[in-house]
Structure formats: C-alpha cells, structure tokens
Protein: Peptide ABC transporter permease
Amino acid sequence: MFARLWRNSAFRFGILVLLALLAVAIAAPLLGTVDPAAMDSAHINTPRGTRGEFALLDGSTVAHTFWMGADNFGRDIYSRVLYGTRTSLLVAAFTALVAVGLGALLGMLAGYFRAVDVVLMRVMDGMMAIPAILLAIALVAALGAQLWTVVIAIAIPEVPRVTRLVRALVLTLREEPFVEAARALATPTPTILARHILPNALAPLIVQGTFIAASAVLTEAILSFLGLGLPADIPTWGNIMAEGRVQFTQYPGNVLFPALFLVPTVLAINLLGDGLRDVLDPKFAKR
Structure:
C-alpha cells in the first residue's frame, strides 16, 4: 500500500513537506533563537538580519541575530514563526480527530437506525445552514480563547459533513450480505458497527480528515487574525500576521514570513489528501 502511495506525486510532495514541518515543530526549542514571548523594547521593529544583544525574560542578555526581524513589541519573529508551526499542526491534528471521531459516530447511528436518522440529520442540516466561520467565531466567543476551545470551535462545523459522508456509506453497507449474516447470527449491534461497518468506512474518513486538517489551519489563522483565536502569548501564524498588518507597508515581512509557512502547509495537507483519495478510493484508483 505504501509503495502505491509513494508512487503518487501529490502524496509524495505532501508527506515530505509535512514531515519537514513536523521536524520544525518538534525542534522549535532548538531552532528558535530566543523565547517567542520575550520582549525587548530596544529592538522594536528591528529589520531582518540585524545583530545585537537581546534581553531575555530573566533579565540577562544574549547575542542574537534577527533573521526575520522583530515586531512592534520587540519579539523575535523567527522564533514566533517556528513555534507557530507547532501550534498550527496541533490544531490541525486535534481538529481532524475530533471532527472525524464525532462525525463517524453520529453518521453510523444515523445510517444504521432509521429512527435516529430522522432527527439527527435535520440537526445536521440546520448546522450546515450556518457558515462555518461564523459558527466557529460564535463558539470561541462563548467558550473562550484557549487551545482546546479553538479546536472544538473549528471541529464542530465540520461534523455535519463527516456525518453525512458516513451515513451514506452505512446506508449502503448495512444491506451487504456480511452485515446481514452478522445480524442473523445475533451479533450485538455495537460489534457490527465496530467490526463490520467502520473498517469499510475508514478510507473515506482518512481522506476527509486530511481536508479537515487543512481547513483547520486556515480557520485558526483567520480566527487569530480577527483577534478571536488563541491568546497573544501563544504564537500562531494568524496572530503574528494580525499584529503585523497595522505596519504592513513599512514592515511587510511581519506578515509575509508567517504566510510563507501557512501557504505550503495548507497546500501540502491538501495534496496529501488528494494522493490518499487517488489510491484509496476505488473510483479514482481505476483511473
């Protein structure tokens, strides 16, 4: 299976870029030159490439090179962008897990039990009528801006799409002979769902999860850019760009450097999803 995936150019590009970003996220404490939250008023809006002494949080100073410059609070943008990689990947991964897990559970219940289907899918239709970004903003405002609340706020609008996908698969799978045979043998319903139906829905769920992860990175950046995402003391690409936009004409790097990380991340996750779809989906594999 992996050999087939590796032959797919979209998957190969996506996985290599994501592995590089994952390495950056893990090694951020080593690659980052200073604490991303440390401020030095002597280096406000310092141009990139400048060398000097940076005041640390404990009051000491260290020789430092501002590879990407400093923002209007005197914080090193290079270190903030590196730590922002960690935050964005965490949000993407946890959002995909929450949305896919909850959507798969609800979709199996709706597809297998007709009485549940009538009520549950009307609720899902109502949620899909609300724009995802507006629903996320409302949830963040109600729950507060923390990592887990942002993950939940981004994941909830994605749940109806996953639910509809799984429901459609279950409606087909429940009529298959192997499911009817399991029912004839008095197999408990939870066992049928877990052992016979869920494994046959995993491939579409994995593909859908990658697209949710890509959307989560963008949505988190939008929320942070609007000031509704994670707190300013947690570096994210969105709040770095939000803080830099007021001085974009004078210091465009404050916005462009985090954007240069954001764009390939979303592109790589989408290409990874395309590659997985091409190999795992029988309709695309035949092509």
Q: What stands out?
A: Strands lie at 50-55, 61-66. The radius of gyration is 23 Å. The chain has a mean pLDDT of 85.
